[in-house]
Amino acid sequence: METDDEPTTSQALPTERAKATPGLSDPERWVELYGDFLFKYAIMRLRDPANAEDAVQETFLAALKGREAFAGRSAEKSWLVGILKNKICDHYRRASRETSFTDLEFYSDEESSRFVAEGALKGAWIHELGPREWPNPGESLDNEKFWQAYRDCCGKLPKNVAAVFNLREVDDLDSKGICGMLDISENNLWVMLHRARMALRRCLETNWFGKGGEAL
Amino acid sequence: MRWFSRLAGALGALSPTCKRATRLQSEAMDRRLSFLEKLGLRLHLFLCKWCRRYGAQLKFLRSAARECEEHGSRQEPQTLSPEARERIKHTLQSGQD
Q1: What is the DSSP annotation of A176-194?
Q2: How far is A97 from chain B (nearest CA, A)?
Q3: What class is the A14-98 domain?
Q4: Which of A51, A173, A188, B90 is an S-S bond match for A177, by CB 3.0 to 4.6 Å?
Q5: Which of A27, A123, A190 sits opposite B96 (nearest CB)?
């Protein structure tokens, strides 16, 4: 506790109170101290600069409101990251309410045309339309042009589907974690991931491997 | 050889269709398959080169996705833009007053 020089002002101004909160730096310096760190954390998970900026701003505002409760229980930085995580979850929850994660046209089973429709072989690949052999996929990973094709293909996925795919494959969150975050059922998630992989696979086959990618 | 054709028939019934196998191969990357699902899928993959390819390509997609961070980061800014920085500072200031 700092010594109070003026015992009469029991209603201190917010800034003064902030300075008195142990372990917490002046909110005016937060942007300089943590702005870029939080932004980087957010953009990795949101994949959109504007949304990431909003999340950082909301985090600071929430921190400003809640700093009474901070009381130096954890390091300032991890306290802010904790708030940011909640803001990112909020974002995904909002997004899942707005454009539903489930009923996009994307889910109309477009790949069905690649399987035999009826008869004894129903559900088998139609051979001409089945997966092609990919020549040296490993080498593609060293090719900048491959990554251009990869990003283009990811860009063609509906935004929410791409976000789910990235949460699973890039951030390596497990099914339960993602479902809790987005408030969807596991079965729903698995269908989304299945469709995302199917679409990405086909897109890369058409736009990269089918064009003799590694030779480009 | 009737027992043989019966066995083949039973095994065939266990094996999923290619369409179902694509879904199972994807789900195997996200959850534990049941014993019967696993058995059916193994059997199917043993018989079907298309689905073996499909599975290998899904694994490739996963490894690509894990690396894409390094190759995609140039697309996305890694720091707050000066405008955003000012805007947030301003909001914080007015939030304090």
Answers
A1: HHHHHHHT--HHHHHHHHH
A2: 24
A3: mainly alpha
A4: A173
A5: A27
Q: What are the pLDDT digits (tens) for A138-157? A: 888 888 889 888 888 888 88
Distance, CA of B32 to CA of B40 (rounded, Å) = 14
Which pTM does this prediction carry?
0.70
CATH of A105-215, one of 1.10.3720.10, 1.25.40.20, 1.10.443.10, 1.10.10.10: 1.10.10.10
Q: Which of B44, B61, B93 to mutate to test the interface with A (most CBs of A within 10 A)?
A: B61
Domain that holds residue B59: 2-75
Question: Residue B94 falls within a domain, yes or no?
Answer: no
This complex has an ipTM of: 0.77
pLDDT tens string A93-106: 777 665 555 444 55
Pairs across A and B, CB distance < 8 A = 144
**Measured CA distances, A51 to A87, A131, A182, B50, B64 (Å):** 10, 37, 16, 41, 25
Q: Does residue B12 belong to the interface with chain A, where contact is any CB pair within 8 Å?
A: no
Domain count, chain B: 1
